[in-house]
Amino acid sequence: MGCGASVMNRDGGDGNASAPKPKKDAAEGESFSKDLKSFLIKIVKDPEYAKSLPETLAATDDPTNQVEKMLKMMMSIIDMVKDTTTPKHDIPEFLVGCLVAFLYHLTMKPAAPEKSVELTALHETGYHVDAKWADAVYDKEEVEDAKAALVASMAADPMPKTMKVEDVAYFRAASKLGQPAVAVVADRERELILVIVRGTANMKDVLTDLAGASREWEGGYAHESVSMGAKKVYEEIKEYVLNLKAQNPSYGVRCVGHSLGGGTAGCLSILMHHDAEFAARIYGGVPLPGKKSKGSYMITAVGFGSAACINKELVEEAHPYCTTIVHDADLVPRLCTDNISDFIVLADNLVDTFKAVADDMRMLLKGTKPEGYDFKKVMGMLRKVGSDPGGLLKDLLDEKMDKAQDAVEEAAAANEKRLYAPGRLMFLAKPEKGDGPYTISKGPMASEASKMLLKGSMFKDHSCGGYVKVCCLGHLPPPPAS
């Protein structure tokens, strides 16, 4: 199934709490907004254009047009969830609803937790080092000496880290069916045994994998393929971890990964805690932290853009020892079949909203007064329709779109099988303007922050290289001048 999404560039190129509040997102890029409004104005002026939209998308391939890519992605996603949710409108009309939903999401910032975190505090957790490990395991399948290549990647900027090849206890660099690539490493400086799970570098594969079903798992619900992959990886690396622990009794275990690898890492940490014999050997007979025992968790996990793969009950269980770091509008931690279904319902609701507004816009474009507006407002609309028709269209839609979103949220409440990224949330929010420092905050994962917003940067924000730079430097450096 094609989604129209390109292969991600892990160096940050295209690949891609309080309730969300409408805010101008300067980082969104004017080109996305311009392309989006252009699509909608074409449909206002020529309703027949919408009927040919699927064929038009199939016949064109403009890699610079984010709107085109997002519509192609939605067509693939509809096919992925057709057994559970299908649009009530035909595909051309539904795609118009998608365009309106994109417009609705355009000026909304992803919800961020309220508790702020300084970059120095993030560095104290070592998560910036873990981000480098999550990135380092990519692209080693065809290297002659994969362990040496892994160590060499850690020595690269930013914030290079010197490792020894002999500290890489195990590295299967190539993924197998249902079993991601994985490494086991002794981090001597931090006294950690790292289990690093590689993610999926192709956004098409990520979208396909995450459209799968959930199943009962470890006392809750989990994404079927991610949880099964975690079980296979656990059986594969268990003895390597225990051997390193026997040699280094003071070491803890940390599971690390990006994207699907981050979701797998979170599931691994749950499996390790649920395996009483394994946990006893890692904790050395010390009671696990909890209501009756204060202490440090010896088994932890951190994921970067982790896949939504466990339900709220398991998310809350893993909250004390598992963290998912989310880069602004990154789609993957928010992508699950329930969120996709919510979006389909929203887009369906917005089809009729657009039809009503489009009728008013056509009258204004002809210089006539639509019904239901006072004279002063009509005069303002007539002035704007000549200078900024796309902006006027958005203004008229904004007045009606909140009601459609509210209806979706009411229908989505109290779903015990809804999936989230594992553990607690650490959120990396882009600066309002320019290339300044990010704002970092933390809070619960099963919150407004997990709502899916489809934005122009949602693929780019998923790049592992972007996570490395923000976690190490606190900002994304501007691209080098060409």
TrEMBL record:
Domain Fungal lipase-type: 195-337
Entry coiled-coil feature ranges: none
CDD domains: Lipase_3
Classification via InterPro entries: AB_hydrolase_fold (IPR029058), Fungal_lipase-type (IPR002921)
Region (Disordered): 1-31
Leader sequence residues: none
GO BP terms in the entry: lipid metabolic process
Segments traversing the membrane: none
Compositional bias (Basic and acidic residues): 22-31
Name this protein carries in UniProt: Fungal lipase-type domain-containing protein
